[in-house]
Fold:
Amino acid sequence: MITGASSGIGESLARCFARAGHCLVLVARSSEKLKALALALAGEYGVRAVALPADLSQPGAVPALAARLRRRHLTIDVLVNNAGVLAHGPFVEMTAQHQQQMIDLNVSGLTAMLSQFVPGMVARGRGRILNVASIAAFQPVPSLATYAATKAYVLSLSESLAEELRGSGVTVTVLCPGITATPMLSSAVEASAALARLPGFLIGDVDAVAAEGFQACMDGEVIRVPGALNQAATLAGRATPKWLLRRIVGAIGRTTI
Structure:
């Protein structure tokens, strides 16, 4: 099951899994896009692809999704938590509603999905989880403060669960891409002139990112950061004292907001 499957990294991941012969449950808010993708993947790869539109940020959405799966007699062996939202700009200029939307989906929705489906995987003694975070999870990011905080949560939770579930037959992988050419980035660029000035070499290819995430999930890796430049940035961030990292990232952020 892949959440946020109607576009971007989610759609590319759906293609990766379909190409490998996996039957799919596709989840996103966009019903028409989701149904079209399910039909396309089923036709191209000969796999069963079920579209289940849902807004995972809403209270009760995850139990309702699980009930729909039970009615269809569908069991989830691989869970890809890709659904997420991003808002760029100074914290004090962002509405409380926008802040809460990021937390509701990026944190609460993802956690609810794990709580709903991981116990069944453990009981069956097999399963794979792929949580999509971001390189923003590794350091504070002015102008992406809440988004970075939600992705830091995803990274921390994924690492903890990976160790907690060691030996259970269930693996946990967290994919931490850098800036990637997706509709989410396009929307953020429309809202922020600073993002439009990003040099092309910093923007990753969505299909390449998805392919790395898929392979890492299949191999049972805990953390995958696509791209040599992103890997170097995360390693440097982890090695730099926190106070210095805040000053460096803050100085960069003040020139781009």
Remarks:
- The mean pLDDT is 87.
- Strands lie at 2-3, 24-27, 49-51, 78-81, 127-132, 170-175, 223-224.
- The first strand starts at residue 2 and ends at 3.
